[in-house]
Amino acid sequence: MGEVWQATDPVLQRTVAVKVLLPSLLSDAEFISRFRTEARLMAALRHPGIVQVHDYGADALVDDVRRDFLVMEYIEGVSLGKHVAAAGALGVAETLSIVAQAAEALDVAHRAGIVHRDVKPNNLLVRPDGTIVLVDFGVARSVDTTSITNPNMIVGSPQYMAPEQVTGEPVTAATDIHALGSVAFCCLTGRSPFAADNAVQVIARLLHGGPPAFPAAVPDAVARLVLRALDPDPARRFPTAAAFAAAARALASAPDTGVALSAPPPADPDATPRLTAAPPHVPAPPSGAPTPQNGLAPHGAPWSGPGVGSPVSGAPVFPMADAAPAAALSARAGRRNRMLAVAGAAALVLGVTTVAGVIVLQPSAERSTATTTAAGRGDADGPDDAGSGAPASTSAGPSASAASPTASGSPAAAPSGSQPAATQPAAAPPTASTGVSEEPVETESPTRRPTTAPATNPYSATQVCGSGYRVVDSAALKKSDGTLVGTVYLLYQASGGRNCVLTLKRTAIGSKTAATAFLQVQGKTRATDSGSFAYYAGPVRAAAAKTCVKWGGSTGGATYASPYEHCG
Questions:
Q1: In b/e form, how buried is each residue of 512-535, taking b as 16+ CB within 10 angstroms?
Q2: Is residue 182 domain-shared with residue 327, that is, in the same domain?
Q3: Most buried of 237, 291, 399, 566 (most Cβ within 10 A)?
Q4: 491-528: pLDDT as tens digits
Q5: Is 118 a catalytic residue?
Q6: From start to end residue, where is composition biased (Pro residues) (predicted)?
């Protein structure tokens, strides 16, 4: 709902970030009220993980236009959305550090009675030293105030919403914990947990889908940590953000965080209590392995964790809450069915209402000490917001009360006081989308744990590698007697210039047997995924635009390795 400018405070001689409302919202009383609420809420918070507010001005006259403005701490760094997009996915240790830092910042807000309501990768900034800063309280709400939001509107970013946000139930600190769980899933997998093509599908998966599935490389204890935060029932999540942070830090310090997923379950069944009954409103899955849908667990899967053995001794376990009584589950199921009936209608306004969470940072040129002028359009952090395009060039020059910021260089390119942006010329004003964009990272593999071994492999190469990939080559893996035991696939994503390799098993499907997949970009180190897998090895991804690659894999005693090829 605002533009954020990099500016210079001429009195204190410091770089600041100045946020102003978009010109199109200057006559909207609700957005003005929300903007002023953001300033008040942020000013009440003091924590190194929360962007600091320096000043606020109301009705400043700039170029014959009255504007409200917010002067904030300038954060040098990149959004977590961009950071994940660049890496494809983050490691367990880095993810746990991010979760712990963000949760500690949220705990400060929660103890002050403030719920952020829009925690997502683009609202977390990563400093060069790896520290995390929470920004953009534009849709935050104080528990002590009456909501200024139209009761028929859904506020937030759909792919990182909690079920209670979508269904209009009370929003609490547990809502932010769910959102941070979604952020953690995105860090580990490169995609949001309920990603879909449009808002209706996102809502359907959020309310009725099973738990999202993790790549094989994610340890069980880490998966359980994230899944507890993502529990549909707020009462079953971590009781506080501080508890979530403590659990993440404890897990990060465990010597065996990276324990293999094949570790046997504990002898004591109470060691890792799970919800064993599927929600009654979801039909039981058919026999055989169901076809996964963009990485979600099969419909009807218990919402109770990753469904695998717990880690070996030493790794802390974060169990889900005890199973709810059948009557409670039935009541909850009925409530959800009613909620889904209105989800489609509610989704129609998502494209408009989620604009409230969009902050675009825009280039600036030299002006007088009291004003800044847009010289171009900053890069959006990523399309996880509907209507997240940058605005066209405008004049926007807030005057910062006692210390008016002066334009100096380009504006930041991320929400609420972020890093300098690219200075591409502005093209056209943005248009709000009524759909839901994907987080700008690659889709990770589907669930790896169907409950019954199928006769044929239920996964395809494009499912595993993710959105935008197409098969460019493949090699059959055959034993000496001609038996087909697997297929190695090479895929390419034109939009990102990335290759993906995986080995799909054709025999012993559903049973863990040795398999490998590798990808080597010419001039770089080979990347390999190897181990015991039930369905496939990989995916192994690497940027390889206009670069030769070697690729291959093995399973069932057959191996394939290519020469350098596919150089264009």
A1: bbebbbbbbbeeeeeebbebebbb
A2: yes
A3: 237
A4: 998 888 899 999 999 999 988 899 999 999 999 989 99
A5: yes
A6: 280-289
